[in-house]
Amino acid sequence: MDDRYGTAEFYSGLFQDILADVDAEYSPKATENIYKGFLLAIDSWLEYHEHQANEYVEFRRRVRETLGMP
Question: What is the pTM of this model?
């Protein structure tokens, strides 16, 4: 694993890769697609975590039921 993982320099490299795609001449839609992609990623992670939280609620319910707890 990269020992820089999680550092500002690590994330700078990731952002540089994305920013390199901003090109008004050859790819005018890139800027719009970058921010739309960012929003899609946020929505995807929110959906994932909501699903996970619901799974924990159901797991807790089953454990409490098994143990005879109210």
Answer: 0.71
* Rounded Cα gap, residues 43 and 40, in angstroms: 5
In what helix (H) or strand (E) does residue 68 lie, and over which residues does it extend? none
pLDDT digits (tens, 9 = 90+) for 25-59: 888 899 999 999 999 999 999 999 999 999 999 99
Please give the DSSP secondary-structure letter assigned to residue 7. Answer: S
Cα–Cα distances in angstroms (integers) from residue 12 to residues 9, 18, 23, 52, 57, in the given order:
5, 10, 19, 30, 37
Strands (E), the chain: none
